[in-house]
From TrEMBL:
Its EC number is 2.4.2.17. GO terms for molecular function: ATP binding; ATP phosphoribosyltransferase activity. Heteromultimer composed of HisG and HisZ subunits. Catalyzes the condensation of ATP and 5-phosphoribose 1-diphosphate to form N'-(5'-phosphoribosyl)-ATP (PR-ATP). Has a crucial role in the pathway because the rate of histidine biosynthesis seems to be controlled primarily by regulation of HisG enzymatic activity. This is ATP phosphoribosyltransferase. The keyword Nucleotide-binding applies. Residues 53-198 form the ATP phosphoribosyltransferase catalytic domain. GO terms for biological process: L-histidine biosynthetic process. InterPro entries: ATP_PRibTrfase_cat, ATP_PRibTrfase_CS, ATP_PRibTrfase_HisG, ATP_PRibTrfase_HisG_short. It catalyses: 1-(5-phospho-beta-D-ribosyl)-ATP + diphosphate = 5-phospho-alpha-D-ribose 1-diphosphate + ATP. The gene is hisG. The lineage of its organism: Bacteria, Bacillati, Bacillota, Bacilli, Bacillales.
Amino acid sequence: MKPVIALTKGRLEKQFMEFLQERGYDVRPLLNKGRKLQVETDDFFAVFAKGIDVATYVEHGIADIGIVGEDILLECQPDVFDLLPLPFGKCRFAIAGDPTAVNPMRKQRIATKYPNITTKYFRERGKSVDILKLEGSVELAPLLGLADDIVDIVETGSTLKENGLVVKEEMFTLSARCIANRNSLKLKKAILSPLLDSFRIEEAVI
Ligand SMILES: Nc1ncnc2c1ncn2[C@@H]1O[C@H](COP(=O)(O)OP(=O)(O)OP(=O)(O)O)[C@@H](O)[C@H]1O
Ligand SMILES: O=P(O)(O)OC[C@H]1O[C@H](OP(=O)(O)OP(=O)(O)O)[C@H](O)[C@@H]1O
């Protein structure tokens, strides 16, 4: 029996392939998958899904382990075992906005794809803000006057720069994480251990 790994499509996909290759896995079936969403390799079955769905497949035990951004775990709090950080998908959360904007006389409006992370962050600092949930292109919100500032992921800073926005406050850093189904960890230890051992990184990864 082979373990089932749920992989986040998109950004993390390529970086995870490189990570596997560095560890000696034959990733050709994954690289040649075309539009297929399920692929078998010599070592595991892989399924490809959006980050939040990766967490759902792992939570329900359809996948034994998952590769997902820490942002998904923090925002959605799935009932999974958060096993270990991975040395890719590194970025940070920040509050950003228009450097020339003056402080509003009303409550600050924050646009974000991450309302739970944002609520928690401001609540812990005793600050009351209005949060507007967007699904993407969050940088537009302060440019068009929908919000004063945004809470979003920043990696290179290019998106902010090209839209005339700046980081106003660094929040915290994040990376991709390896998650596991709680039962799989107990019941399928023998088949999961070799894979998980090979994912462990001796040196500090973040
Ligand atoms: N600019 C970035 N740099 C590095 N990692 C990022 C960046 N943006 C997102 N990530 C990480 O990669 C994961 C997948 O991001 P990706 O943009 O591929 O999917 P998404 O955020 O679900 O967007 P989409 O809806 O376009 O699929 C995120 O959950 C996050 O952990
Ligand atoms: O600092 P950078 O390297 O520019 O990366 C940051 C951008 O990447 C992500 O957006 P994504 O490309 O996932 O698009 P989205 O706005 O549709 O979420 C994030 O939401 C920022 O917009």
